[in-house]
From TrEMBL:
Alphabetized UniProt keyword annotations: 2Fe-2S, Flavoprotein, Iron, Iron-sulfur, Membrane, Metal-binding, Oxidoreductase, Transmembrane, Transmembrane helix
Molecular function per GO: 2 iron, 2 sulfur cluster binding; metal ion binding; oxidoreductase activity
Cofactor(s) needed: FAD
Species, as recorded: Galbitalea soli
Entries under PANTHER family matching the protein: CARNITINE MONOOXYGENASE REDUCTASE SUBUNIT (PTHR47354:SF1), NADH OXIDOREDUCTASE HCR (PTHR47354)
Protein name: 2Fe-2S iron-sulfur cluster binding domain-containing protein
Ranges for domain 2Fe-2S ferredoxin-type: 425-510
Residues that span the membrane, as ranges: 28-49, 70-93, 130-152
CDD domains: fer2 (cd00207), PDR_like (cd06185)
Domain FAD-binding FR-type: 202-304
Length: 510
Protein backbone atom coordinates (compact mmCIF):
# COMPACT_ATOMS: atom_id res chain seq x y z
CA UNK A 1 0.00 0.00 0.00
CA UNK A 2 2.91 2.33 0.69
CA UNK A 3 4.19 1.64 -2.82
CA UNK A 4 0.78 2.44 -4.28
CA UNK A 5 0.43 5.74 -2.41
CA UNK A 6 3.97 6.90 -3.15
CA UNK A 7 3.59 5.84 -6.79
CA UNK A 8 0.44 7.95 -7.00
CA UNK A 9 2.35 10.95 -5.66
CA UNK A 10 5.09 10.46 -8.25
CA UNK A 11 2.40 10.30 -10.94
CA UNK A 12 0.79 13.55 -9.78
CA UNK A 13 4.14 15.35 -9.75
CA UNK A 14 5.11 13.73 -13.14
CA UNK A 15 8.53 12.69 -11.83
CA UNK A 16 8.29 9.35 -13.66
CA UNK A 17 7.23 10.86 -17.00
CA UNK A 18 10.66 10.34 -18.56
CA UNK A 19 10.58 6.58 -18.00
CA UNK A 20 7.25 5.56 -19.48
CA UNK A 21 3.96 6.79 -20.87
CA UNK A 22 1.21 7.87 -18.44
CA UNK A 23 -1.19 5.00 -19.20
CA UNK A 24 1.33 2.37 -18.13
CA UNK A 25 2.21 4.32 -15.00
CA UNK A 26 -1.47 4.54 -14.07
CA UNK A 27 -1.83 0.80 -14.58
CA UNK A 28 1.06 0.08 -12.19
CA UNK A 29 -0.53 2.36 -9.60
CA UNK A 30 -3.89 0.59 -10.01
CA UNK A 31 -2.22 -2.84 -9.79
CA UNK A 32 -0.43 -1.97 -6.54
CA UNK A 33 -3.66 -0.57 -5.10
CA UNK A 34 -5.59 -3.71 -5.97
CA UNK A 35 -2.86 -5.90 -4.50
CA UNK A 36 -3.01 -3.95 -1.21
CA UNK A 37 -6.74 -4.70 -0.87
CA UNK A 38 -6.15 -8.36 -1.74
CA UNK A 39 -3.38 -8.66 0.88
CA UNK A 40 -5.63 -7.11 3.56
CA UNK A 41 -8.37 -9.64 2.73
CA UNK A 42 -5.88 -12.51 3.01
CA UNK A 43 -4.69 -11.09 6.34
CA UNK A 44 -8.27 -11.00 7.67
CA UNK A 45 -8.90 -14.59 6.58
CA UNK A 46 -5.67 -15.74 8.23
CA UNK A 47 -6.78 -14.13 11.52
CA UNK A 48 -9.98 -16.20 11.46
CA UNK A 49 -7.97 -19.38 10.73
CA UNK A 50 -5.35 -18.71 13.42
CA UNK A 51 -5.82 -21.20 16.26
CA UNK A 52 -4.26 -18.90 18.89
CA UNK A 53 -6.06 -15.60 18.17
CA UNK A 54 -9.39 -17.20 17.18
CA UNK A 55 -10.89 -14.07 15.55
CA UNK A 56 -14.53 -14.31 14.49
CA UNK A 57 -15.89 -12.77 11.30
CA UNK A 58 -17.57 -10.10 13.43
CA UNK A 59 -14.29 -9.15 15.07
CA UNK A 60 -12.52 -8.66 11.71
CA UNK A 61 -15.39 -6.66 10.19
CA UNK A 62 -16.81 -4.60 13.07
CA UNK A 63 -14.56 -1.96 14.71
CA UNK A 64 -13.96 -2.21 18.50
CA UNK A 65 -15.48 -5.70 18.75
CA UNK A 66 -12.19 -7.62 18.93
CA UNK A 67 -11.20 -9.31 22.18
CA UNK A 68 -7.51 -8.74 21.39
CA UNK A 69 -6.17 -5.15 21.45
CA UNK A 70 -9.52 -3.73 20.42
CA UNK A 71 -8.39 -0.16 19.63
CA UNK A 72 -5.45 -0.84 17.27
CA UNK A 73 -7.43 -3.66 15.63
CA UNK A 74 -10.29 -1.19 15.06
CA UNK A 75 -7.86 1.14 13.25
CA UNK A 76 -7.11 -1.64 10.81
CA UNK A 77 -10.80 -2.42 10.25
CA UNK A 78 -11.59 1.25 9.55
CA UNK A 79 -8.64 1.45 7.17
CA UNK A 80 -9.98 -1.60 5.33
CA UNK A 81 -13.30 0.12 4.66
CA UNK A 82 -11.47 3.22 3.45
CA UNK A 83 -9.53 1.03 1.02
CA UNK A 84 -12.76 -0.51 -0.27
CA UNK A 85 -14.20 2.99 -0.82
CA UNK A 86 -11.09 4.14 -2.67
CA UNK A 87 -10.95 1.02 -4.84
CA UNK A 88 -14.68 1.03 -5.60
CA UNK A 89 -14.83 4.68 -6.62
CA UNK A 90 -11.71 4.24 -8.75
CA UNK A 91 -13.49 1.54 -10.75
CA UNK A 92 -16.39 3.98 -11.25
CA UNK A 93 -14.24 7.04 -11.95
CA UNK A 94 -15.87 7.62 -15.36
CA UNK A 95 -19.32 7.71 -13.80
CA UNK A 96 -18.65 9.83 -10.70
CA UNK A 97 -18.26 13.60 -10.32
CA UNK A 98 -14.55 14.35 -10.31
CA UNK A 99 -14.54 16.33 -7.00
CA UNK A 100 -16.34 13.48 -5.21
CA UNK A 101 -13.90 10.87 -6.55
CA UNK A 102 -10.92 13.04 -5.60
CA UNK A 103 -12.18 13.47 -2.01
CA UNK A 104 -12.62 9.72 -1.56
CA UNK A 105 -9.27 9.01 -3.20
CA UNK A 106 -7.43 11.29 -0.77
CA UNK A 107 -8.67 9.12 2.12
CA UNK A 108 -6.08 6.53 1.03
CA UNK A 109 -3.49 8.66 2.85
CA UNK A 110 -5.49 8.31 6.06
CA UNK A 111 -5.89 4.58 5.46
CA UNK A 112 -2.11 4.19 5.14
CA UNK A 113 -1.50 6.00 8.41
CA UNK A 114 -4.20 3.97 10.20
CA UNK A 115 -2.69 0.71 8.92
CA UNK A 116 0.77 1.83 10.01
CA UNK A 117 -0.44 2.45 13.57
CA UNK A 118 -2.42 -0.78 13.43
CA UNK A 119 0.71 -2.72 12.47
CA UNK A 120 2.85 -0.93 15.05
CA UNK A 121 0.61 -1.65 18.03
CA UNK A 122 -1.25 -4.86 17.15
CA UNK A 123 1.16 -7.41 15.71
CA UNK A 124 2.82 -10.09 17.81
CA UNK A 125 6.22 -8.63 16.91
CA UNK A 126 5.42 -5.14 18.23
CA UNK A 127 8.13 -5.44 20.88
CA UNK A 128 10.84 -5.89 18.26
CA UNK A 129 12.75 -2.69 17.43
CA UNK A 130 12.81 -3.46 13.72
CA UNK A 131 9.03 -3.76 13.68
CA UNK A 132 8.47 -0.40 15.32
CA UNK A 133 11.01 1.23 13.06
CA UNK A 134 9.20 -0.19 10.04
CA UNK A 135 5.88 1.18 11.23
CA UNK A 136 7.38 4.59 11.97
CA UNK A 137 8.97 4.62 8.51
CA UNK A 138 5.62 3.89 6.89
CA UNK A 139 3.96 6.64 8.91
CA UNK A 140 6.72 9.06 7.94
CA UNK A 141 6.42 8.18 4.25
CA UNK A 142 2.64 8.59 4.35
CA UNK A 143 2.96 11.98 6.07
CA UNK A 144 5.53 13.09 3.49
CA UNK A 145 3.18 11.97 0.70
CA UNK A 146 0.31 14.01 2.16
CA UNK A 147 2.45 17.13 2.54
CA UNK A 148 3.79 16.76 -1.01
CA UNK A 149 0.32 16.35 -2.48
CA UNK A 150 -1.03 19.36 -0.54
CA UNK A 151 1.82 21.54 -1.78
CA UNK A 152 1.29 20.36 -5.38
CA UNK A 153 -2.44 20.97 -5.08
CA UNK A 154 -1.93 24.49 -3.78
CA UNK A 155 0.42 25.36 -6.63
CA UNK A 156 -2.12 24.08 -9.18
CA UNK A 157 -4.97 26.02 -7.55
CA UNK A 158 -2.84 29.13 -7.43
CA UNK A 159 -2.08 28.74 -11.13
CA UNK A 160 -5.75 28.33 -11.98
CA UNK A 161 -6.93 31.29 -9.89
CA UNK A 162 -7.47 34.40 -12.03
CA UNK A 163 -5.60 37.55 -11.15
CA UNK A 164 -7.36 40.51 -9.63
CA UNK A 165 -7.08 42.51 -12.83
CA UNK A 166 -8.48 39.74 -15.04
CA UNK A 167 -11.87 40.25 -16.63
CA UNK A 168 -14.17 37.30 -16.00
CA UNK A 169 -16.73 36.62 -18.70
CA UNK A 170 -19.90 35.30 -17.01
CA UNK A 171 -21.94 32.53 -18.57
CA UNK A 172 -25.37 33.82 -19.36
CA UNK A 173 -27.46 32.54 -22.23
CA UNK A 174 -24.87 30.61 -24.26
CA UNK A 175 -26.80 30.68 -27.51
CA UNK A 176 -26.91 34.46 -27.45
CA UNK A 177 -23.35 35.07 -26.26
CA UNK A 178 -21.27 32.33 -27.91
CA UNK A 179 -20.10 34.33 -30.89
CA UNK A 180 -19.56 37.54 -28.97
CA UNK A 181 -17.57 35.79 -26.25
CA UNK A 182 -15.40 34.06 -28.83
CA UNK A 183 -14.79 37.28 -30.72
CA UNK A 184 -13.92 39.21 -27.57
CA UNK A 185 -11.73 36.54 -26.03
CA UNK A 186 -10.05 35.20 -29.12
CA UNK A 187 -8.22 38.21 -30.47
CA UNK A 188 -7.60 40.97 -27.91
CA UNK A 189 -4.59 42.22 -29.86
CA UNK A 190 -4.21 45.22 -32.08
CA UNK A 191 -4.48 43.60 -35.53
CA UNK A 192 -8.13 42.67 -35.01
CA UNK A 193 -9.08 44.95 -32.16
CA UNK A 194 -10.54 43.94 -28.79
CA UNK A 195 -9.94 44.67 -25.10
CA UNK A 196 -6.45 45.40 -23.89
CA UNK A 197 -6.89 43.62 -20.56
CA UNK A 198 -6.60 39.82 -20.28
CA UNK A 199 -9.81 37.92 -20.85
CA UNK A 200 -10.30 34.65 -18.94
CA UNK A 201 -13.37 32.66 -19.79
CA UNK A 202 -14.89 30.48 -17.10
CA UNK A 203 -14.66 27.54 -19.47
CA UNK A 204 -11.56 28.48 -21.46
CA UNK A 205 -7.90 29.44 -21.50
CA UNK A 206 -6.39 32.78 -22.40
CA UNK A 207 -3.38 31.88 -24.55
CA UNK A 208 -0.60 33.78 -26.31
CA UNK A 209 1.36 32.74 -29.39
CA UNK A 210 5.00 32.42 -28.27
CA UNK A 211 6.38 30.99 -31.53
CA UNK A 212 5.36 30.27 -35.10
CA UNK A 213 7.23 28.11 -37.61
CA UNK A 214 6.80 26.42 -40.96
CA UNK A 215 6.76 22.64 -40.46
CA UNK A 216 5.84 21.62 -44.02
CA UNK A 217 4.48 23.03 -47.23
CA UNK A 218 1.15 24.63 -46.30
CA UNK A 219 1.50 23.71 -42.61
CA UNK A 220 2.43 26.05 -39.75
CA UNK A 221 3.30 25.14 -36.18
CA UNK A 222 1.85 27.43 -33.52
CA UNK A 223 3.32 27.25 -30.01
CA UNK A 224 0.94 28.49 -27.31
CA UNK A 225 1.37 29.38 -23.64
CA UNK A 226 -0.92 30.81 -21.02
CA UNK A 227 -0.96 34.57 -21.09
CA UNK A 228 -0.70 34.75 -17.29
CA UNK A 229 2.49 32.64 -17.27
CA UNK A 230 0.94 29.75 -15.31
CA UNK A 231 1.34 26.10 -16.42
CA UNK A 232 -1.05 24.62 -18.93
CA UNK A 233 -3.56 21.99 -17.77
CA UNK A 234 -2.33 18.40 -17.71
CA UNK A 235 -2.91 16.58 -21.01
CA UNK A 236 -2.04 13.19 -22.48
CA UNK A 237 -1.08 12.21 -26.06
CA UNK A 238 -4.04 12.35 -28.43
CA UNK A 239 -5.50 15.49 -26.82
CA UNK A 240 -6.66 18.54 -28.76
CA UNK A 241 -7.39 22.20 -28.11
CA UNK A 242 -10.49 23.99 -29.36
CA UNK A 243 -9.49 27.46 -30.60
CA UNK A 244 -12.05 30.23 -30.58
CA UNK A 245 -11.57 32.22 -33.75
CA UNK A 246 -13.15 35.45 -35.02
CA UNK A 247 -16.72 35.35 -36.24
CA UNK A 248 -17.72 32.68 -33.73
CA UNK A 249 -15.68 29.95 -35.42
CA UNK A 250 -14.30 27.15 -33.24
CA UNK A 251 -11.74 24.68 -34.55
CA UNK A 252 -10.03 21.66 -32.97
CA UNK A 253 -6.28 21.05 -33.37
CA UNK A 254 -4.27 18.14 -31.95
CA UNK A 255 -1.40 18.86 -29.57
CA UNK A 256 1.89 17.63 -31.02
CA UNK A 257 4.41 18.60 -28.34
CA UNK A 258 5.67 16.89 -25.18
CA UNK A 259 2.89 16.49 -22.55
CA UNK A 260 5.53 16.89 -19.83
CA UNK A 261 6.12 20.48 -20.98
CA UNK A 262 3.47 22.38 -19.01
CA UNK A 263 4.73 25.82 -20.00
CA UNK A 264 3.76 25.64 -23.68
CA UNK A 265 2.21 23.35 -26.27
CA UNK A 266 2.26 23.22 -30.06
CA UNK A 267 -0.44 22.69 -32.64
CA UNK A 268 0.01 22.29 -36.39
CA UNK A 269 -2.49 23.78 -38.85
CA UNK A 270 -2.71 22.86 -42.53
CA UNK A 271 -4.10 25.51 -44.86
CA UNK A 272 -7.25 23.95 -46.27
CA UNK A 273 -8.15 24.81 -49.87
CA UNK A 274 -11.80 24.79 -48.81
CA UNK A 275 -11.23 26.74 -45.58
CA UNK A 276 -14.32 28.34 -44.05
CA UNK A 277 -12.16 30.91 -42.31
CA UNK A 278 -10.37 28.85 -39.66
CA UNK A 279 -7.09 27.67 -41.17
CA UNK A 280 -6.90 30.65 -43.54
CA UNK A 281 -7.17 33.12 -40.63
CA UNK A 282 -4.51 31.26 -38.64
CA UNK A 283 -2.12 31.21 -41.61
CA UNK A 284 -2.64 34.83 -42.59
CA UNK A 285 -3.21 36.58 -39.26
CA UNK A 286 -2.15 34.63 -36.16
CA UNK A 287 1.44 35.62 -35.35
CA UNK A 288 3.76 35.76 -32.35
CA UNK A 289 2.50 37.92 -29.50
CA UNK A 290 -1.17 37.63 -30.41
CA UNK A 291 -3.65 36.22 -27.95
CA UNK A 292 -6.41 33.73 -28.50
CA UNK A 293 -8.97 31.92 -26.39
CA UNK A 294 -9.18 28.14 -26.27
CA UNK A 295 -11.15 25.37 -24.57
CA UNK A 296 -9.50 22.19 -23.37
CA UNK A 297 -7.37 20.22 -23.64
CA UNK A 298 -9.86 17.43 -24.39
CA UNK A 299 -9.04 13.86 -25.31
CA UNK A 300 -11.12 11.16 -27.03
CA UNK A 301 -8.13 9.55 -28.74
CA UNK A 302 -5.99 8.75 -25.72
CA UNK A 303 -3.14 6.27 -25.96
CA UNK A 304 -4.22 3.14 -24.11
CA UNK A 305 -1.69 0.78 -22.50
CA UNK A 306 -0.66 -2.13 -24.71
CA UNK A 307 2.48 -4.21 -25.34
CA UNK A 308 2.56 -3.26 -29.05
CA UNK A 309 1.12 -0.65 -31.41
CA UNK A 310 0.70 0.04 -35.11
CA UNK A 311 0.19 3.67 -36.10
CA UNK A 312 -1.23 4.76 -39.47
CA UNK A 313 -1.20 8.49 -40.25
CA UNK A 314 -2.38 10.34 -43.32
CA UNK A 315 -1.13 13.89 -43.91
CA UNK A 316 -1.94 16.21 -41.03
CA UNK A 317 -3.24 13.15 -39.16
CA UNK A 318 0.33 12.69 -37.93
CA UNK A 319 -0.21 15.40 -35.29
CA UNK A 320 -1.89 13.38 -32.50
CA UNK A 321 0.18 10.28 -33.32
CA UNK A 322 3.45 12.20 -33.04
CA UNK A 323 2.79 12.95 -29.35
CA UNK A 324 1.92 9.28 -28.79
CA UNK A 325 5.16 8.07 -30.33
CA UNK A 326 7.25 10.54 -28.37
CA UNK A 327 5.61 9.42 -25.11
CA UNK A 328 6.48 5.74 -25.55
CA UNK A 329 9.65 4.36 -23.94
CA UNK A 330 12.36 2.94 -26.17
CA UNK A 331 11.50 -0.65 -25.26
CA UNK A 332 7.87 -0.45 -26.41
CA UNK A 333 7.09 -2.29 -29.66
CA UNK A 334 5.56 0.01 -32.31
CA UNK A 335 5.66 0.85 -36.02
CA UNK A 336 4.35 3.77 -38.05
CA UNK A 337 3.09 3.98 -41.63
CA UNK A 338 2.94 7.65 -42.64
CA UNK A 339 1.16 8.41 -45.94
CA UNK A 340 1.04 11.79 -47.71
CA UNK A 341 0.87 13.51 -51.06
CA UNK A 342 4.58 14.38 -51.11
CA UNK A 343 7.48 14.63 -48.68
CA UNK A 344 7.28 18.41 -48.80
CA UNK A 345 3.69 18.36 -47.53
CA UNK A 346 4.27 15.79 -44.74
CA UNK A 347 5.02 17.45 -41.36
CA UNK A 348 7.76 15.81 -39.26
CA UNK A 349 8.47 13.11 -41.88
CA UNK A 350 12.22 13.81 -42.01
CA UNK A 351 12.51 14.03 -38.21
CA UNK A 352 10.68 10.74 -37.69
CA UNK A 353 12.84 8.93 -40.24
CA UNK A 354 16.00 10.31 -38.70
CA UNK A 355 15.02 9.40 -35.14
CA UNK A 356 13.28 6.04 -35.78
CA UNK A 357 14.63 4.68 -39.10
CA UNK A 358 13.72 1.06 -38.31
CA UNK A 359 10.21 1.79 -37.04
CA UNK A 360 8.89 4.40 -39.47
CA UNK A 361 7.79 3.95 -43.08
CA UNK A 362 7.13 7.19 -44.98
CA UNK A 363 5.03 6.75 -48.12
CA UNK A 364 4.76 9.87 -50.35
CA UNK A 365 2.15 9.06 -53.00
CA UNK A 366 3.94 11.05 -55.71
CA UNK A 367 6.93 8.70 -55.45
CA UNK A 368 4.96 5.48 -55.96
CA UNK A 369 2.85 4.16 -58.79
CA UNK A 370 0.65 2.05 -56.51
CA UNK A 371 -1.10 2.91 -53.20
CA UNK A 372 0.46 1.92 -49.90
CA UNK A 373 0.04 -1.76 -49.03
CA UNK A 374 -2.03 -1.39 -45.87
CA UNK A 375 -2.68 -5.12 -45.65
CA UNK A 376 1.04 -5.96 -45.52
CA UNK A 377 1.72 -3.32 -42.89
CA UNK A 378 -1.20 -4.31 -40.69
CA UNK A 379 -0.25 -7.99 -41.04
CA UNK A 380 2.65 -7.30 -38.67
CA UNK A 381 0.10 -7.68 -35.90
CA UNK A 382 -0.22 -5.48 -32.81
CA UNK A 383 -2.41 -5.24 -29.77
CA UNK A 384 -3.78 -1.82 -30.77
CA UNK A 385 -3.93 0.07 -34.06
CA UNK A 386 -4.22 3.88 -34.07
CA UNK A 387 -5.24 5.67 -37.25
CA UNK A 388 -5.81 9.35 -38.04
CA UNK A 389 -6.15 10.94 -41.45
CA UNK A 390 -8.58 11.23 -44.37
CA UNK A 391 -11.86 9.34 -44.16
CA UNK A 392 -10.85 7.06 -47.04
CA UNK A 393 -7.70 5.97 -45.18
CA UNK A 394 -9.56 5.22 -41.95
CA UNK A 395 -12.20 3.21 -43.84
CA UNK A 396 -9.44 1.19 -45.54
CA UNK A 397 -7.72 0.44 -42.22
CA UNK A 398 -11.05 -0.49 -40.62
CA UNK A 399 -11.54 -3.10 -43.33
CA UNK A 400 -8.47 -5.00 -42.06
CA UNK A 401 -8.60 -4.39 -38.28
CA UNK A 402 -11.23 -5.61 -35.84
CA UNK A 403 -13.14 -2.84 -33.98
CA UNK A 404 -11.84 -3.88 -30.55
CA UNK A 405 -8.25 -3.29 -31.69
CA UNK A 406 -8.81 -0.13 -33.74
CA UNK A 407 -8.71 3.45 -32.44
CA UNK A 408 -9.46 6.28 -34.88
CA UNK A 409 -9.95 10.04 -34.70
CA UNK A 410 -12.07 11.75 -37.32
CA UNK A 411 -11.66 15.25 -38.74
CA UNK A 412 -15.16 15.28 -40.21
CA UNK A 413 -18.36 13.72 -38.96
CA UNK A 414 -19.77 10.53 -40.45
CA UNK A 415 -23.28 11.07 -41.78
CA UNK A 416 -25.59 8.94 -39.65
CA UNK A 417 -29.33 8.67 -40.07
CA UNK A 418 -31.67 8.37 -37.11
CA UNK A 419 -33.27 4.93 -36.88
CA UNK A 420 -35.80 6.09 -34.31
CA UNK A 421 -37.04 8.88 -36.56
CA UNK A 422 -37.30 12.54 -35.60
CA UNK A 423 -39.61 13.06 -32.63
CA UNK A 424 -39.89 15.37 -29.64
CA UNK A 425 -38.20 14.38 -26.40
CA UNK A 426 -38.71 15.45 -22.79
CA UNK A 427 -35.27 16.24 -21.34
CA UNK A 428 -34.52 16.74 -17.65
CA UNK A 429 -31.20 18.24 -16.54
CA UNK A 430 -31.10 16.95 -12.99
CA UNK A 431 -28.37 19.12 -11.46
CA UNK A 432 -29.69 22.27 -13.13
CA UNK A 433 -33.26 21.33 -12.11
CA UNK A 434 -34.53 22.21 -15.56
CA UNK A 435 -36.94 20.26 -17.77
CA UNK A 436 -37.92 21.12 -21.33
CA UNK A 437 -39.19 19.65 -24.57
CA UNK A 438 -36.80 19.18 -27.48
CA UNK A 439 -38.81 19.43 -30.71
CA UNK A 440 -37.96 17.26 -33.68
CA UNK A 441 -36.57 20.29 -35.52
CA UNK A 442 -34.06 21.26 -32.79
CA UNK A 443 -31.02 19.61 -31.20
CA UNK A 444 -30.75 18.75 -27.52
CA UNK A 445 -27.72 21.03 -27.21
CA UNK A 446 -29.59 24.01 -28.68
CA UNK A 447 -32.45 23.57 -26.23
CA UNK A 448 -30.02 23.18 -23.30
CA UNK A 449 -28.41 26.48 -24.26
CA UNK A 450 -31.82 28.10 -24.72
CA UNK A 451 -32.73 27.12 -21.15
CA UNK A 452 -29.40 28.38 -19.73
CA UNK A 453 -28.07 24.92 -18.87
CA UNK A 454 -24.29 25.21 -18.30
CA UNK A 455 -22.82 23.27 -21.23
CA UNK A 456 -20.13 23.99 -23.79
CA UNK A 457 -20.73 23.36 -27.48
CA UNK A 458 -17.92 23.62 -30.02
CA UNK A 459 -17.96 21.83 -33.40
CA UNK A 460 -21.72 21.07 -33.20
CA UNK A 461 -21.16 18.27 -35.70
CA UNK A 462 -20.45 15.35 -33.35
CA UNK A 463 -16.68 15.29 -33.81
CA UNK A 464 -14.87 17.17 -31.03
CA UNK A 465 -16.65 15.71 -27.97
CA UNK A 466 -16.74 19.03 -26.11
CA UNK A 467 -20.44 18.77 -25.23
CA UNK A 468 -20.16 15.36 -23.50
CA UNK A 469 -22.84 14.75 -20.84
CA UNK A 470 -23.64 11.78 -18.60
CA UNK A 471 -26.96 9.98 -19.14
CA UNK A 472 -28.90 9.06 -16.00
CA UNK A 473 -32.11 7.85 -17.60
CA UNK A 474 -33.59 7.14 -21.01
CA UNK A 475 -32.00 5.65 -24.12
CA UNK A 476 -29.78 7.96 -26.19
CA UNK A 477 -29.48 7.48 -29.94
CA UNK A 478 -25.84 8.10 -30.83
CA UNK A 479 -25.41 9.98 -34.10
CA UNK A 480 -21.95 11.41 -33.38
CA UNK A 481 -18.49 10.29 -34.56
CA UNK A 482 -16.53 10.68 -31.30
CA UNK A 483 -16.39 7.18 -29.79
CA UNK A 484 -17.68 3.73 -30.58
CA UNK A 485 -21.38 3.46 -29.63
CA UNK A 486 -20.78 0.51 -27.30
CA UNK A 487 -18.05 2.46 -25.55
CA UNK A 488 -20.40 5.42 -25.04
CA UNK A 489 -23.07 3.11 -23.63
CA UNK A 490 -20.56 1.53 -21.25
CA UNK A 491 -19.54 4.98 -20.00
CA UNK A 492 -23.14 6.21 -19.89
CA UNK A 493 -22.44 9.34 -21.96
CA UNK A 494 -23.75 11.09 -25.05
CA UNK A 495 -23.00 14.12 -27.23
CA UNK A 496 -26.18 16.21 -27.50
CA UNK A 497 -25.04 18.42 -30.38
CA UNK A 498 -26.18 15.79 -32.92
CA UNK A 499 -27.28 12.75 -30.91
CA UNK A 500 -30.91 12.37 -29.96
CA UNK A 501 -33.03 9.98 -27.90
CA UNK A 502 -34.66 6.68 -28.78
CA UNK A 503 -36.96 7.11 -25.77
CA UNK A 504 -39.51 9.84 -25.17
CA UNK A 505 -37.71 10.96 -22.00
CA UNK A 506 -34.05 11.61 -21.26
CA UNK A 507 -32.40 12.48 -17.92
CA UNK A 508 -28.96 14.13 -18.05
CA UNK A 509 -26.45 14.75 -15.26
CA UNK A 510 -25.84 18.43 -15.88
Amino acid sequence: MTISVLWGILLSTRVLRRFDNPSWLNDIHAYASGMSILMVLLHMVSLMLDGWLRFSITEVLVPFSAHYRAFPVALGVIAFYLLIAVGGTSLLIKRLPRPFWRTIHYSSYGALILISFHAGFTGTDVGSPWYRWLSLTLIGLASLAIVTRVLVGRSVNRAARPRRDDVIVPRTAPAATASSTAAAAAVPSSPLGGPATPVVSLDGLDLVVVARRRVAEGVVGIRLARADGHPLPVWHPGAHLTLRLPGGLERQYSLTSDPADRQSAEICVRLSPTSEGGSSWIHSTLHEGMRISAVGPSNHFELEPAPSYLFVAGGIGITPILAMIESLPARRDWYLLYIGRSRATMPFAAELLRQYPERVTVFPSDEHALPADLHAFLARGADLVYCCGPESLMDAVAAYVSPERLRIERFVAVVRQSLAGLHSTEVTCRRSKVSFTVPATSSILEEMERHNVPIIGSCRKGVCGTCEVRVLGGVPEHLDSVLDDDRKNDLGIMYPCVSRSSSTELILDV
